[in-house]
Amino acid sequence: NVGSLDHWVATCSSSGMEHIVVDGVSRGNAWAAKSFGYSTCQMSINGYAGEPSDWEFAELAIWDKALTDTQMKLVQDEMLKKVLPNRVSNVPVASHRHIVDYDRISAVSAWGIYRAGDYNNGILKEARGNGRDARSTGDGVIDKKVEKAGNGAEANLEVLDGSEKSILSWPDGSIPTGGHTVCAISRYSGNHRGRILT
Predict the structure, then answer these.
(1) pTM, full prediction
(2) Measured by CB atoms within 10 angstroms of the end CB, which terminus of the chain is less buried, N or C?
(3) Would you list the DSSP string of 23-90?
(4) Containing H/E element for 176?
(5) How far apart are CA 103 and CA 63, in angstroms?
(6) CA 137 to CA 2: how far, in whole Å?
(7) pLDDT tens digits, the chain, 198 residues: what are they?
């Protein structure tokens, strides 16, 4: 629970340290997939049926390696340029057009990079075209839109908007237990406030 419950939040979680970073600030330890002893897991939005959320999502990157705290903070700085361009950049940008090169920033090639603008007909394409696409698997509708500045964001954001019945699922093995990192920009968009990223 950091800040207002409906504000945009940039988060990174690494299995290497079982560590979480929120809006560029270390926020302590968190469970990681390796804690459960599975060989691989599957990334999802609203994948935990017991805690559904009304959600919006702007961007997400998955690594099949545990990034260091320093690497996660570099990634977060770039994510925050989409949300807070006037505070973290000398020149304001049209944030929904700001393309983050996660491979270069982290110095590690990401397993998958996903941007809301790449969603079409129930499929969220992996940004570099490697085929690791995410798919809508729930009963709820997922809308793509450009949302005007607000909810903690100082600029417009291209987003996906879903209800507690809207589920987005990544391929099996998208979260390997040998080491992984997940960084995302998301927020609660309604009264259902369970787990968005699972």
Answers:
(1) 0.87
(2) N
(3) TTEEEEE---GGGGT-SEE--EES--TTS-EEEEEEEEEEESS---HHHHHHHHHHHHHHH-HHHH-S
(4) strand 175-176
(5) 9
(6) 29
(7) 455 778 888 888 888 655 566 666 665 665 555 556 666 788 899 998 889 999 999 999 999 988 888 898 889 888 888 888 776 655 555 445 668 899 999 999 999 999 999 999 999 999 999 999 999 998 999 999 999 998 888 889 999 999 999 999 999 889 877 788 999 999 999 999 998 988
